[in-house]
Specification:
With 360 residues, the protein is an alpha/beta fold. Helix content is 30%, strand content 23%. Helix 4 crosses helix 7.
Length: 360
């Protein structure tokens, strides 16, 4: 996975990267770095044999020992993608610079060097700064002097992008709602599109929808292996079909849950080492806002012989909990027209007051 540490010149990108690398190593990640130089550079030390070879006309040269090698090669139009091929075993490749790229990134904004971030907000996970920069109303600002927290944000993204699949559960006939809940409009998007957008912001690449029919290029529609088993039956099938070993599970009819709370849930699961982690708010446990290990599929299949209740299955397991302090309405389950109207009014008022349900 490629991740950029960006910022204008002299903002402290190299210093931050050197602080992050030992933390990633402690977390078991093999990390490589790539730095872009806007000017040409000398790739070898004058006076060495390899430098003399290049000076004499070789287009490339290499030196190696039992434990490392170094190569210099003249080539036109080199990109970071070419260099990534040198590190096939890397879990993470940190790019220094690349502020105009579409890679996920953290931007360093240092007092006295710049006043505000310059990167496109769409690809900016956070800003690392030693003051409160302008233009960060919807972007998390991390303490530049806290490399552990900065590393945790990158680790969360790495985990989400490389280890998680997304399961959207749309089970139920929608009888109380009177229509298919996945197609309900929520501020210009359907409920299904709202949840898929969350998956995209989290970097998840394998996304599935269970219990509904349709077409959407962003996800796979998974028919239940066992019919009339409700969301738990959909979860069992989806776990079997998942590309990754863990699945973020969301009910389609909880469209307002903020991405910020999902990031916190992901960190809770990542650190817990438990097979399940769920979100809790105001003493209410949400089994359909959770992360489940893929290897639970067979256990769920056996459980379905006696019960179809997701909460009953959850209570039979040890699980981790992320307890949210947000207002309950963010997690409102839309099961009927009254709930739909209440949630739309609540979020509409929030947006009218200038709020944005983004990374924060």
């Amino acid at each position: 996975m490629l991740f950029a540490v960006s910022g204008i010149k002299n903002s402290g990108k190299t210093t931050l990267i050197t602080k992050l690398l030992p933390i990633f190593k402690q977390n078991g990640l093999k990390v490589a770095t790539i730095k872009h130089d806007g000017h040409d550079f000398t790739g070898d030390v004058p006076g060495t044999d390899t430098f003399k070879h290049m000076a004499s006309g070789a287009y490339g040269t290499a030196v190696f020992s039992k434990y490392r090698f170094m190569a210099v090669k003249q080539q036109g139009d080199v990109t970071e993608r070419d260099l990534c091929q040198l590190f096939p075993e890397a879990d993470l490749i940190l790019l220094e610079g690349f502020k105009e790229s579409r890679y996920p990134k953290i931007e360093v904004v240092r007092e006295g060097v710049s006043a505000r971030p310059v990167c496109d907000e769409e690809h900016l996970l956070a800003v690392a700064s030693d003051f409160t920069p302008k233009g960060c109303e919807t972007i998390p600002v991390l303490n530049l002097d806290d490399p552990i927290e900065i590393a945790e944000v990158i680790l969360d993204y790495w985990y989400s992008k490389t280890q998680l699949s997304l399961v959207l559960l749309a089970g139920g006939k929608g009888s109380r709602m009177g229509s298919d809940k996945t197609t309900l409009n929520f501020f210009g998007k359907t409920f299904l599109e709202c949840q898929l957008e969350k998956g995209k912001k989290l970097g998840i690449q394998d996304m599935m929808a269970s219990g509904c029919q349709g077409t959407n290029p962003q996800c796979r529609f998974i028919p239940d292996r066992q019919t009339d088993k409700g969301p738990l039956g959909g979860l069992e099938t989806s776990l079997r079909e998942a590309v990754n070993e863990q699945c973020l599970v969301l009910g389609v009819d909880i469209p307002a849950v903020p991405v910020s709370e999902l990031w916190k849930l992901i960190r809770t699961y990542r650190k817990s080492k438990m097979p399940v982690a769920v979100l809790k708010h105001q003493n209410r446990t949400e089994p359909l806002i959770g992360i489940y290990a893929k290897n639970l599929a067979e256990e769920i299949s056996l459980f379905l012989k006696s019960s179809c209740r997701v909460m009953s299955f959850l209570e039979s397991k040890e699980f981790a909990v992320y307890e949210s302090t947000l207002e309950e309405k963010w997690f409102l389950n839309v099961n009927n027209p009254q709930a739909y109207e209440a949630l739309t009014a609540f979020v509409g008022e929030y947006l009218n007051e200038g709020g944005k349900n983004t990374r924060k």
